[in-house]
Specification:
The complex is a heterodimer of chains A (88) and B (626). Chain A has helices spanning 21-29, 63-67; strands spanning 11-17, 37-43, 50-53, 58-61, 69-74, 84-86. Chain A is of the alpha+beta class and 88 residues long. In chain A, strands 4-3-2-1-5 form a five-stranded antiparallel beta sheet. The longest helix of chain B is centred in the middle third of the chain and has 49 residues, at 212-260. The chains are: A alpha+beta (88), B alpha/beta (626). Chains A and B meet through helix 1, strand 2, strand 4, helix 2 and strand 6 of A and helix 3, helix 7, strand 8, helix 12 and strand 9 of B.
């Protein structure tokens, strides 16, 4: 399943990125790398960009790029990186 | 003199910190990619004991996510790092995870680093707390919490600069990326605590503005009200401030000058121009101090002021990248991706910053397309103000014809270039900044910066443009050029020969050029054709210079060719169609609808190419792995 197929509001764990080194490096610098959990927050139209949340910030990826990011859907995860979390 | 370089991810507040450290004025906005070149400033530090001041050179670099540059702006940043004596690594405290990736890469370079933990107030507000001394221990370099907008914490940073610090201990070894991420994970667990909290209304708005339905409704509301506000405020300023000033204060002054100069002579001709029925007519007198000053302050200034007020608000709110997301699909039809909307919007103010902002686009193809589209079909605010002032009085429909034509040209040229310009357009990848309520002090500063730039940089050109017109007329150049270009100007565009002077001045300043059409007593149709041709024709000298710098000789030549052909086609087409075949209203309709239909039915060429390539790759991967 890729980011386009993931449903809006669902969490997904990045499995792999189907692309060359330039693309992987670019996404990795943003924190999008295998193992990272992301949340899909919106998609515009059929072939429009996909917006994802990485907890503290949001990134919009063009359709072509979103198709290249393969994820596993996960339930009840958090898009925040590991750190001590406190509920208030 | 030691050199401090400010490095950090895009949109973390480097420029705000830079302007606090050095007192230099730089543009600060809430979207990634505001800074595309480096800015130099100086930090003076009284060094106490010896009594001598120590001077540091401070460089504000464009933002970058990593040291592997992906666009021109990022390359500038990476090159700057190599020259640094000290790095101020500006880190967004609300995004520690992503920001530390660059931090750890910088630490590997073996240059002394101080980490400025910026947006500290926002992090606190968002329920994120960071153990500063813990982070200091983990990174092995000084860490100082700061608030860039107000300058809080920067005095601490400067104080610690004096205690000399050595390069980080873990230097000069390049680790694999996985190890860097593992270390970031360890650091986060030990120093960062996050409290859960409820969404604020700004966050709800944030989400609504990129959702398919609500996003487009919001975009329509925002764009429409922005336009209304710009026009409303611009007109209010003109009728309540500038017109009374010109009528009651400035006219008597000019009349006195007129009398002092004896009412005639060369100097009178140049400064005051020709009077109409013994009175000053600011629109057609063509004197440097009459028409020149009037164009500058009576027409362009109020319009520009209200435009930049609205733009500044939208910039600092963080809306513009989201507009790019909504329009990504459409922009692909023009061979661009959504973020290319940013240079275009900046181009609506002045094409020069628009051209520079195109450096954020990754491929050469995109940059070429966006620059040609901008210089052909996006008139700057000064030109728009002049067009509205001159043509608007004949009716809104004529304005409609001009702007609809320009829009039609934009879409048509985009679709054509997507077909025929080689190279590739990558998918968009853009960080969307959180909405932030604009801070009035930085808004005021930005507006002042832009307006003073206009007053000091553009005014000489405007006055010079009017002066040049006088010279052209006096020396008879206009008459000769008019006769030479008559087939084009008269035959194709249907304009009188004297309009050549306006076209020539257009190289210098577009607003002056449009104003030159005023005294020619043209019919509304001729005015419309003239104003449109002026917009489409070559950009002004300032834009041309940056265009040349960005594109190089060959591509500028290509762009100029496209401009010329488009101008002739558009001007000739309008001249033919406007009263023979179509009425103005249906012309507006056709100019708007035809290109959209064209764009809708030709699926984007680059989009198709990408899709094909992706399918091939996926097939290869399947057969390879199975």
């Amino acid at each position: 399943m890729d980011l386009v197929e993931l449903k809006t509001g669902q969490f997904g764990r990045v499995k792999r990125i189907e692309g060359g080194r330039a693309l992987t490096e670019r996404l990795e610098a943003l924190g999008i790398r295998p193992g990272r959990v992301v949340k899909k927050i919106s998609s515009v139209f059929r072939r429009g960009p996909v917006a994802i949340s990485l907890g503290s910030f949001e990134v919009a990826l063009g359709y072509g790029m979103a198709r290249r990011i393969i994820v596993d859907p996960v339930d009840g995860a958090s898009d925040r990186p590991k750190s001590r979390e406190v509920s208030s | 003199m030691k050199k401090i370089v400010l490095m950090g991810n895009p949109n973390v507040g480097k420029s705000a910190i830079f302007s606090h450290l050095t007192g230099a004025r730089v543009n600060v906005s809430n979207y990634p990619g505001t800074t595309v070149e480096f800015t130099r400033g100086f930090l003076k530090m009284p060094s106490g004991r010896e009594g001598t001041d120590e001077l540091y050179e401070v460089l504000d670099a464009p933002g970058t996510y990593s040291l592997d540059a992906t666009c021109k702006a990022e390359e500038v940043a990476v090159d700057l790092l190599k020259t640094a004596d000290i790095v101020f690594n500006v880190v967004d405290a609300t995004n520690l995870e992503r920001n530390l990736y660059l931090t750890l890469q910088i630490l590997e370079c073996g240059i002394p680093v101080m980490v400025l933990l910026n947006l500290w107030d926002e992090a606190t507000h968002k329920g994120i707390s960071i153990d500063v001394s813990g982070l200091e221990r983990a990174l092995g370099v000084p860490v100082v919490p700061t608030v860039g907008l107000t300058g809080k914490g920067l005095s601490d940073a400067v104080r610690r600069l004096r205690l000399s610090f050595s390069p980080p201990s873990s230097s000069a070894i390049k680790r694999p990326r996985d190890e860097i991420w593992a270390e970031i994970g360890r650091i986060l667990v030990s120093v960062q605590t996050i409290m859960h909290r409820h969404h604020t209304w700004l966050e709800i708005l944030q989400e609504a503005s990129i959702r398919p339905v609500s996003g487009f409704i919001l975009a329509a509301i925002i764009l429409y009200s922005s336009l209304r506000f710009v026009v409303f405020l611009g007109e209010a300023l003109i009728t309540n401030v500038f017109e009374p000033f010109f009528a009651q204060v400035y006219t008597p002054l000019i009349m006195r000058l007129h009398e002092t100069l004896g009412g005639q002579g060369l100097l009178h001709e140049i400064l005051v121009g020709r009077l109409r029925d013994g009175r000053v007519d600011f629109e057609s007198s063509l004197g440097v101090l009459t028409t020149g000053v009037y164009i500058d302050f009576g027409v362009v200034f109020p319009y520009l002021l209200s435009f930049y007020l609205v733009l500044g608000f939208l910039e600092d709110l963080g809306y513009l990248p989201r507009l790019g997301v909504l329009l990504d699909r459409l922009m692909h039809r023009l061979g661009l991706h959504g973020y290319a909307i940013l240079p275009m919007i900046l181009g609506l103010g002045c094409n020069v910053p628009g051209v520079l902002a195109a450096r954020n686009l990754e491929s050469k193809r995109e940059r070429f397309i966006v620059l040609t589209l901008m210089s052909i079909s996006i008139p700057c605010a000064a030109q728009q103000g002049m067009i509205v002032g001159l043509v608007g009085r004949y009716g809104v429909v004529y304005l409609g014809v001009i702007f609809a034509t320009l829009f039609g040209v934009l879409v048509t040229l985009g679709v054509l270039q997507d077909r025929f310009v080689s190279g590739y357009t990558p998918s968009m990848i853009v960080e969307m900044p959180p909405y932030r309520w604009p801070y009035w002090r930085s808004q005021a500063k930005k507006l002042w910066m832009r307006m003073s730039h206009f007053i000091f940089q553009a005014t000489p050109y405007i006055l010079g443009g009017v002066f040049l017109v006088n010279v052209l007329y006096a020396t008879g150049v206009v008459a000769v050029a008019g006769r030479l270009l008559a087939p084009l100007v008269k035959g194709v565009f249907g304009l009188p020969e004297e309009a050549v002077s306006a076209l020539m001045v257009g190289f210098l300043r577009k607003d002056v050029a449009v104003a030159m059409l005023g005294p020619l007593s043209l019919s509304p149709k001729q005015l419309v054709v003239g104003a449109t041709v002026m917009a489409v024709f070559f950009p002004c000298a300032a834009t041309f210079t940056v265009l040349f710098k960005e594109l190089g000789f060959v591509c500028t030549l290509k762009a100029a060719f496209i401009m010329f052909v488009t101008a002739v086609a558009v001007g000739g087409g309008m001249n033919l169609l406007l009263d023979n075949v179509l009425t103005s209203v249906s012309f507006v309709f056709c100019a708007l609808v035809a290109p959209i239909v064209l764009a809708a039915f030709t699926s984007g060429a680059s989009e198709c190419r990408e899709e094909r390539q992706w399918k091939v790759e996926r097939k290869e991967r399947r057969t390879g792995t199975v």
